Amino acid sequence: MPDVKHFDPQEALERAERVFWQHGSAAASVQVLTAATGLNRSSLYATFGSKQELYLAALRHYIGTTSHPAFRALAEDERGLPAVRDFFDGLITLRCTGPYAGWGCMVVNAQAGTENADPQVRAVLAEHHTQLCAAFRTALETARAQGQLSPDLPLAETAESLALLAYGVNLHSRSGATADTLRRTTAHTLDTLTRKA
Amino acid sequence: MPDVKHFDPQEALERAERVFWQHGSAAASVQVLTAATGLNRSSLYATFGSKQELYLAALRHYIGTTSHPAFRALAEDERGLPAVRDFFDGLITLRCTGPYAGWGCMVVNAQAGTENADPQVRAVLAEHHTQLCAAFRTALETARAQGQLSPDLPLAETAESLALLAYGVNLHSRSGATADTLRRTTAHTLDTLTRKA
DNA sequence: ATCAACTTGGAACGCACGTTTCAAGTTGAT
DNA sequence: ATCAACTTGAAACGTGCGTTCCAAGTTGAT
């Protein structure tokens, strides 16, 4: 019976996501969000509840559409270390070239910012970290099974270390690091994993 | 002839620094800053010009009193790799225990946040990165001279990699990482540098 | 004692924020 | 054609923001 929405909520969410990603939750005003999504305050609040809820939805959407596919590709790749290399290469390309260059990672930005104060956001960030480490760990197990790794390399610690490295890449890409530098740095780091003890 | 300040500008700057460090530039309102420093709006503006200038001064003070001494200790330490280990241990202790636990690094927070939009801030961040890498590089050269490193380890890339690792530690410490986990992760990472090719 | 130089408290500035409200408009089932 | 259900645009809400202003107070050299 009712009137129906004059816009696509999914597309509005994605546009809002980009604003939050680039500018952060605090700096993304409702005015900017309405301009970016094309819908007005009423529709925005009726659809998403509040700015904070919209941010959370956008963050979850980001993770679902950007992080998770990358994690899955990493974990399911049968090649081992080359999969890790490709993960970093793809990451660096995304961070330093194309429409999102210099935006960093929305999850990493949230970790450093005021967003981090919200318990719900913190929970999402913690889960994201667990999943990232798990994906690295799986890829490292594959690598080990193929004899690509130094024999005494501890997988859990190495996975955690790679996660921190990825955070560093995301962070530094936001403050002007070049793709070239980042690629050489990560490539070398992965090299050290293959050295024999 | 004139009246003299009724407060110590240096101490006010340090109190403001802690507010910016913990909450970021945007979330630190002038009201909170006046409460933290104990001086009122007039004195604050007369002394520091504007909130943005105060932030910049605080950031520079942070780097001068927190980062630089650590960089110097790292670069001047004659022991090589143990100096790097101690650098990370001290960093993790600062980030996870004591009065500043969970605050992360003011510089890293600035990289991910809105502060990063200001060209002057960006310049400070870039210089900080250069100095951090240089300190790592010097320590690695010392380590190499003492035969502590894998022979074919590229120093520049390794230094950059360690810098990214430090960023990751700082970032992750702000979103709840435990000192124990961070220490095991960094300790393992440093182990990989000593493996023979 | 005087006075210029400076600081201080507090009020006020205009503006932008996130959110709410509501009349007018639109929809689709009956 | 009717009507309940819902959306939409625009105005308004109160609050807090960074900043400015000024009268009153304080200082130290003359």
From TrEMBL, chains A, B:
Residues 6-66 form the HTH tetR-type domain. Keywords: DNA-binding, Transcription, Transcription regulation. InterPro entries: Homeodomain-like_sf, HTH_TetR, Tet_transcr_reg_TetR-rel_C_sf, TetR_C. Residues 29-48 bind DNA. One of its GO terms (molecular function) is DNA binding. It comes from the Bacteria. SUPFAM superfamilies: Homeodomain-like, Tetracyclin repressor-like, C-terminal domain. PANTHER family: HTH-TYPE TRANSCRIPTIONAL REGULATOR YJDC (PTHR47506:SF1), TRANSCRIPTIONAL REGULATORY PROTEIN (PTHR47506). This is TetR family transcriptional regulator. It comes from Streptomyces cacaoi. The lineage of its organism: Bacteria, Bacillati, Actinomycetota, Actinomycetes, Kitasatosporales.
